[in-house]
Design brief:
Blueprint: H1 8-25, H2 29-47, E1 52-55, H3 59-75, E2 79-81, H4 85-95, H5 100-108, E3 114-118, H6 125-136, E4 140-146, E5 159-163, H7 168-187
Parallel strand pairs: 1-2, 1-3, 3-4, 4-5
Organism: Bradyrhizobium symbiodeficiens
Pfam family, one: SIS_2
Protein name: SIS domain-containing protein
């Protein structure tokens, strides 16, 4: 491959950017314990006949959908994601955007389920309201947040993940990386065929 020149400003930006990702995804025993505890809650949900329900907005909803598919398909843990446009528009129309996910949880969740709530800022009202609904139903809850250490979602779960970054892309990438690690921990290996 021929040598490629890189604009020095681009290189400086990308060095800083990758450094931010490395710092955000750096793990310690606390993160390892949270990933292990996530695995335990997911396996408990499966054993109890429950499912893992993923929720998020925007990019976090995309991550939630990806995680639900991989957890169900690759790890054999029943999972779903509340991202159906018809469900969202119906419930948001009837109950308001801040409460649509809480009503989806009320209508669809059952004993033994585990809710995984993803919000980069940790301040999304519809996510916070859904967690409150899950708590009234005595569901296990896992939270993923970032940005500010004092965000309200950060301490609402049985297991809580926090990314110490103010970059949405770094926070979302780290959330997905940690949850993929938990899925692979359920599977018991990092490399396996896609089907």
């Amino acid at each position: 491959m021929p040598a490629v020149s890189v604009d020095p400003d681009h290189k400086a930006f990308l060095d800083d950017y990758v450094g931010r990702l490395h710092r955000a995804t750096a793990v310690d025993d606390g993160v390892f314990a949270a990933i292990s505890a996530t695995r335990a809650l997911w396996l408990r949900a499966r054993k109890q006949g429950g499912r893992v329900i993923f929720i998020g907005n925007g990019g976090s909803a995309g991550i939630a959908s990806h995680l639900a598919i991989d957890l169900a398909k690759n790890a054999s843990v029943p999972a779903l994601c509340f991202s159906d446009a018809s469900m969202m528009s119906c419930l948001a129309n009837d109950y308001g955007f801040e409460d649509w996910i809480a009503h989806a949880v009320r209508l669809s969740a059952r004993a033994g389920d585990c809710l995984v709530a993803i919000s980069s800022s940790g301040r999304s009202k519809n996510i916070l309201n859904a967690v409150a609904q899950a708590r009234t139903m005595k569901l296990d809850v896992i939270t993923l947040s970032g940005m500010n250490a004092d965000n309200p979602l950060r301490n609402l779960g049985d297991v809580n993940f926090f990314v110490d970054s103010r970059s949405y892309n770094i926070v979302e990438t780290t959330h997905q990386f940690w949850m993929m690690a938990a899925i692979d921990l359920v599977i018991g290996r990092a490399e396996y065929p896609a089907s």
